[in-house]
Amino acid sequence: MLKIIIPTMMLIPLTWLSKPSMIWINTTAYSMLISLIGLTYLNQFTDNNLNFSLLFFTDSLSAPLLMLTTWLLPLMLMASQHHLSKETLTRKKLYITMLVTLQLLLIMTFTATELIMFYILFEATLMPTLIIITRWGNQTERLNAGLYFLFYTLVGSLPLLIALLWLQNNLGTLNLLVIQYWTQPLLSSWSNTLLWLACMMAFMVKMPLYGLHLWLPKAHVEAPIAGSMVLAAVLLKLGGYGMMRITILLNPLTDFMAYPFMMLSLWGMIMTSSICLRQTDLKSLIAYSSVSHMALVIVAVLIQSPWSYMGATALMIAHGLTSSMLFCLANSNYERIHSRTMILARGLQTLLPLMAAWWLLASLTNLALPPTINLVGELFVVMASFSWSNITIILMGINITITALYSLYMLITTQRGKYTHHIKNIKPSFTRENSLMILHLLPLLLLSLNPKVILGPIY
Amino acid sequence: MNLFTSSILVTLFMLTLPIMMANTSMYINKLYPRYVKTTISYAFMISLIPTMMFLHLGQDTMISNWHWITIQTMKLSLSFKFDYFSMIFVPVALFVTWSIMEFSIWYMHSDPYINRFFKYLLLFLITMMILVTANNMFQLFIGWEGVGIMSFLLIGWWYGRTDANTAALQAILYNRIGDVGFIMAMAWFLTNLNTWDLQQIFMANHENLNIPLIGLLLAATGKSAQFGLHPWLPSAMEGPTPVSALLHSSTMVVAGVFLLIRFHPLMEHNKTLQTITLCLGAITTLFTAVCALTQNDIKKIVAFSTSSQLGLMIVTIGINQPYLAFLHICTHAFFKAMLFMCSGSIIHSLNDEQDIRKMGGLFKALPFTTTSLIVGSLALTGMPFLTGFYSKDLIIETANTSYTNAWALLMTLVATSMTAAYSTRIMFLALLGQPRFSPIITINENDPHLINSIKRLLFGSIFAGFLISYNITPTTTPQMTMPHYLKMMALIVTILGFILALELNLMMQNLKFKYPSGLFKFSNMLGYFPTIIHRLMPKTNLLMGQKSASTLLDMTWMEKILPKSISHFQMKSSTAVSNQKGLIKLYFMSFMLTLTLSLLTLSFHG
């Protein structure tokens, strides 16, 4: 494990000691090299875990997420270059340091063996994210967004701390590898219900569950590009990951407790999709589409069947890459138009044809075109929920239809139609941006060839 | 092991070559469209080899190539099914596409992105091939969705036009509703039969297949533009004419019918679903024929006639004759593609004029197009011994002699008669009489690309039906004996339609109707369907999205209940509880008083 952690730590001195012209290149190249180390963990040749030490392990659930985290850092660095071009050198370095710290914490969160350690790191990721949002966001609303972000997640996760302490007292350990053998069935009683809620709410807020999702659109919209990317791609997945890890403690109560949350998610995914249909703000649209996709993951995790777990893991990875790519595209529009309003960026296909191709592919993956992994994920979730209850297919069907609609609405509004006059003299798309999009798409396409690496431990 | 699988795989592989070449300098070349066209013609020739072998030996083949993934007990692999349906369909589709590609070289020659257009057409064809040869539902779904997405790109080809974008989005929306049905069927098969392989699904012996069959019917309704989900097909005429010819005549829209034919083994014992299918088809064929009667846009008329023929195919499936429906798919492809190409030729010659009221007298100016259009229309109406006759006449006869729903049968017969009526109308208004178009027009149909492509389909429209029905063995025994009046029924209603339409058109020239009647309005306004469904539904949905989802729930309730109310109560309670009221003067005053007092007491103490 140290072979990832120490290089990641060494990124910080690399940033501070690099020549001013080299800070971006050095860090990007180096972090890309680090992500290559993570590739080896994708090959989980046995059903067991890869134990690195007493503190860290990885299995086929966390390995894809770990890979996603390490893969995303170079992409974030590439995406932020323009955003920071007017800042002073020290601030640039500070920004990179924040991103690196976040990555470091995320890597350790995904591989932590102890639940308490997981909890501490889970909370620690809030700090760099908060700094990125509130310091480098574009508008003054960023402070409000930061406040929402911090309070929602903290209020959700404090009960988890208490629950974990109680569990430690009861079970004698919080080691993830051990508790699956030691756990007692959680019978239905008031205190157990509270325990269930305490354990799950932290992750539900993080996912976010419909009703508790208010922080997400705000944080996504106000965050700088790297913040949006990492929020959508990795931080939301912490919720899904945590839920999948902790549900082993909570059986069989989940079967009973799942109903209200399931209803909320099924209802919420349609609601958030319909909100997407009416968005004028590009980033807000993408943020709400994240909520709608994450609702599918919540449904899948709560159903707790093998197919649903596979679907949830695949969907998390697929959505991580897709939404991050959409945010990058939105940002490249923003850097040219200087506005997030979609109607100001019409008809871009005429001016930036290659960018239009990326838009098309990103929209298609977002609406789950077969045979991408987005489809694999969504299809499995739909299958699982259909076998859970046949009626859910109606809600899922409505959601599938609306998802296709708003993805293509986004595509048509920004790319098709006549271009407006004020965008006549925009910059062409840079190689940096094009390669950024390719680096998002490539894993999506390659994983479609062999989706079993991201189907999680039950596969 | 023989040449069968290898030659069919060569056919499929060849089609991908121009796509791969798109990264090389060949793609920048002006000759790229011709490469594509030639590739398809070669693919057609090669595909004849396995088809001949199939006709000779009659063996179904299934190959399984690449193992994709095994999930628990379900294996998913790349596998192809070369049976009766795919082996006959592949050469037909390739032949039609070959002509359409050649036609597009002529039609799109001034488009700056003609190479990309050809690439899209070819990609579309490939997805269609995937669809027809797929052996498991996942692969079928890849083709199914791929066809939908490529149709989005092709219909919205002129992306600067709002109408084209709307039509493209509309196509995707209606298709997506159908996809939900497909996904439902997939989910049902997975949960109950634990397989997506076609053979295993057909082997399964399940009591109640209503749910998956309804799902498949919904999928077919979306893709094949059946009543309820039909408006996208006429709207899709916003795309370039070659796109209409390829997508909306012979390939994409028949995919839904093809799906039902594929899954027919499940349907043949389910009477409920057959009745629903029959009624759906009958309504579609009648409704769209009614709509076609009063349209003035030449492409819209052809589009509605496609829809009507699709309804007829669904009717055929409803009377439990999938092989006949399939025969109709194959024969229909030839003359319908040709009708679209003829209308494309007319439109191009008249400077993008699509209104048949502004045509007329074209038989002098465009003799070849006129000939083809008339042959195509006659084939469409089922004129004996043209291509359409071999399938359409059989369908009507079989429907007549079967114990079927008399109402649905009557609807179908009326629709058949209307086919003749609107065909007459096109011929009468566009081709005969006096010219009504503006005189300064460069009419020219003497381009070899145009002539050759239409000529090829013209031969197809005359002979293909005979060739196909002569060569394939009838799989269900057709009813050989029937009373004279039933035998002649199809012909009689068609001739009746012809005569009526001729009379009406002649009358229209001399008399002017005062006010359009209610029936005319119903037909001309497409049964008020777009007005109701395209206004009311999206408006309600969008309004709900805005008002209830976004404003009421998200911005008001949730924000009020959680963050706003908490901060509000915190503020209120803190001001209420704290004894600091911000009275700075008073505080300082009391501070000073205390200070002076204490100083005084201290100083006087000593």
From TrEMBL, chain A:
Question: Which EC class is the enzyme in?
Answer: translocase
Catalytic activity entry: a ubiquinone + NADH + 5 H(+)(in) = a ubiquinol + NAD(+) + 4 H(+)(out)
The residue ranges of the NADH:ubiquinone oxidoreductase chain 4 N-terminal domain are: 1-109
Gene Ontology cellular-component terms listed: mitochondrial membrane
State where it is primarily located.
mitochondrion
* A GO molecular-function descriptor: NADH dehydrogenase (ubiquinone) activity
Q: Which residues cross the membrane?
A: 21-42, 54-73, 94-110, 116-133, 145-167, 194-216, 223-244, 256-277, 284-303, 309-330, 351-369, 389-412, 433-449
Q: Where is the NADH:quinone oxidoreductase/Mrp antiporter transmembrane domain?
A: 112-401
In this record, what's one Pfam family? Proton_antipo_M
Reply yes or no: does the keyword tRNA-binding apply: no
Task: Give the way it sits in the membrane.
Answer: Multi-pass membrane protein
Q: Where in the cell is it found?
A: Mitochondrion membrane
Q: Please tell me whether the keyword Thylakoid is annotated for this protein.
A: no
* GO biological process: one example: ATP synthesis coupled electron transport
Recorded family membership: Belongs to the complex I subunit 4 family.
Classification via PANTHER family: NADH-UBIQUINONE OXIDOREDUCTASE CHAIN 4
Protein name, per record: NADH-ubiquinone oxidoreductase chain 4
From TrEMBL, chain B:
User: Which leading EC class covers this enzyme?
Assistant: translocase
Q: What is the membrane topology here?
A: Multi-pass membrane protein
Domain NADH:quinone oxidoreductase/Mrp antiporter transmembrane span(s) in chain numbering: 134-418
Q: What one GO molecular function would you report for this record?
A: NADH dehydrogenase activity
Write down the InterPro entries for this protein, in alphabetical order. Answer: NADH_DH_su5_C (IPR010934), NADHpl_OxRdtase_5_subgr (IPR018393), ND/Mrp_TM (IPR001750), NU5C-like (IPR003945), Proton_antipo_N (IPR001516)
What is the protein's major site of localization?
Answer: mitochondrion
According to the record, the segments passing through the membrane are: 6-28, 40-58, 84-105, 117-134, 140-160, 172-191, 211-233, 245-263, 275-294, 301-319, 325-350, 362-386, 406-432, 453-473, 485-506, 586-604
Keywords, alphabetical: Electron transport, Membrane, Mitochondrion, Mitochondrion inner membrane, NAD, Respiratory chain, Translocase, Transmembrane, Transmembrane helix, Transport, Ubiquinone
Record's subcellular location:
Mitochondrion inner membrane
List the catalytic activities from the record: a ubiquinone + NADH + 5 H(+)(in) = a ubiquinol + NAD(+) + 4 H(+)(out)
Give the enzyme's EC designation: 7.1.1.2
Q: Where is the NADH dehydrogenase subunit 5 C-terminal domain?
A: 422-601
Q: Which GO terms describe its biological process?
A: ATP synthesis coupled electron transport; electron transport coupled proton transport
One annotated Gene Ontology cellular component of this protein: mitochondrial inner membrane
Question: Which ranges carry the NADH-Ubiquinone oxidoreductase (complex I) chain 5 N-terminal domain?
Answer: 68-118
The job of this chain, per UniProt, is described as:
Core subunit of the mitochondrial membrane respiratory chain NADH dehydrogenase (Complex I) which catalyzes electron transfer from NADH through the respiratory chain, using ubiquinone as an electron acceptor. Essential for the catalytic activity and assembly of complex I.
Which family does the record assign?
Belongs to the complex I subunit 5 family.
Q: Which PANTHER family did the record assign?
A: NADH-UBIQUINONE OXIDOREDUCTASE CHAIN 5
Q: Provide the protein name.
A: NADH-ubiquinone oxidoreductase chain 5
Lineage, top ranks: Eukaryota, Metazoa, Chordata, Craniata, Vertebrata
- Which gene holds the coding sequence for this protein? ND5
